[in-house]
């Protein structure tokens, strides 16, 4: 059985494919995948899912390995081996609001996909806030008046800038990570260790 790798769809996927190619693996089927959700190469079976679902598939042993943003691991704390950082997907967590925004006197409303991270951040500051959970495009919340500010990942800063938001504070930075299912590492050790080591070496070289 080939090792099964779960990949996060979207931005991380493209950066992963570039990295995977640089390691000398056969990457063409991944580059030509179109809308397919499962891809076979000579050595691996890949499938594509949203970041948080990648952790669910790895946790349940459907995938042996997974590539996921560090933000997802901090937010959801899945029961997986968090192996090491990969040399792409560098982001930071930021508190952002409208330019020249005047904060209200009452309890702040903070919109985020990362409710756990947001609550811990404000708890550490000793501040009580209302956290509003959104699934995406969180930048809309302060613009449309749903929240005073957002806590979200920032990579290039373009989304904030193009939507008239500014960073008030930055408090975490992370990259993509390689994760593994706990029992796969024992049962499929012979197959997985050379792959993990090749990834590790490649990550060091970048
Ligand atoms: C993420 C994040 C920001 C954006 C930041 O969203 O939520 O919106 O990327 O990137 P930037 O600093 O390079 O502009 P994503 O594109 O993953 O989609 P989403 O809004 O649906 O979460």
Low-confidence stretches: none
According to CATH, what is the class of the largest domain? Alpha Beta
State the CATH architecture of the largest domain. 3-Layer(aba) Sandwich
Distance between the amino and carboxyl termini = 30 Å
Compounds present? 1-O-pyrophosphono-5-O-phosphono-alpha-D-ribofuranose
Number of E-type strands? 11
What is the CATH topology classification name of the largest domain? Answer: D-Maltodextrin-Binding Protein, domain 2
Radius of gyration based on Cα positions? 19 Å
Instruction: Write down the domain tally.
Output: 2
Record the strand order, biggest sheet.
2-3-1-4-11-5
Share in helix: 25-40%
Overall geometric form: elongated
Largest sheet: 6 strands, mixed
Mean pLDDT score: 97
- The secondary structure category is alpha/beta
Describe the structure in your own words.
The chain has about 210 residues and is of the alpha/beta class. The protein folds into two domains: about 5-90 and about 175-205, D-Maltodextrin-Binding Protein, domain 2 (3-Layer(aba) Sandwich), CATH 3.40.190.10; about 90-175, 3-Layer(aba) Sandwich (D-Maltodextrin-Binding Protein, domain 2). It has helices spanning about 10-20, 30, 50-60, 70-75, 115-125, 140-145, 160, 180-185, 190-205, and strands at about 5-10, 40, 45-50, 65-70, 80-85, 90-100, 110, 130-135, 150-155, 165-175, 175-180. The protein has a six-stranded mixed beta sheet with strand order 2-3-1-4-11-5, sandwiched between helices. The longest helix is centred in the C-terminal third of the chain and has 17 residues, at about 190-205. The radius of gyration is 19 Å and the shape is elongated. The mean pLDDT is about 95. 1-O-pyrophosphono-5-O-phosphono-alpha-D-ribofuranose binds near residues 137 and 156.
